[in-house]
Design brief:
The chain has helices at 19-32, 69-81, 128-138; strands at 4-10, 38-50, 59-60, 88-90, 97-99, 104-105, 110-119, 142-148. By secondary structure, the protein is of the alpha+beta class. The strands form 3 sheets. The chain has a 4-stranded antiparallel β-sheet, covered by helices on one side. The chain has a two-stranded antiparallel ribbon with strand order 3-6. It has a two-stranded antiparallel sheet with strand order 4-5. Strand 4 (88-90) and strand 5 form a beta hairpin. It is globular and about 45 Å long.
Length: 149
Amino acid sequence: MSDHWIQFVPADPNAQPTKDAAERAVQLLSSCAPRADKVSFELKENTEFFSGLGNLSDIQCPACGVDVEHWWRGAIDRAWQTLFRDLAVTTPCCGSQTSLNDLRYIWPAAFGRFVLEAMNPDIGNTTAEQDDQLAKCLGLPLRKVLAHL
């Protein structure tokens, strides 16, 4: 049997909410996904890459839309060597100055030091209104990642 997660990661890879805000957000996400196997948060010391795991597909330049997946593999390997402290990159297609976090991941992905997640939420997805409520609860703009393993 496979597992699914709905994960919320701050849009700013270095942002972390307070522990109190994170605990309130767990309660709010639990009310959105009452049958989830587990709802939790993690504050991480180092930046991590959150992706759709088995669902990760195309990766595009945010400036020109060209597929950069072949280049991305090397770029993410180099960034990983510094524990993702520096996500700045120049795309090979059009020379755009951007961030690994701001590439266009066709199956959403994000870098961050905080994650709020529901494992096997049994709801399919959260609504835009629920997403906005979670962002307000945490006091941070969020990116949603749907992971499947």
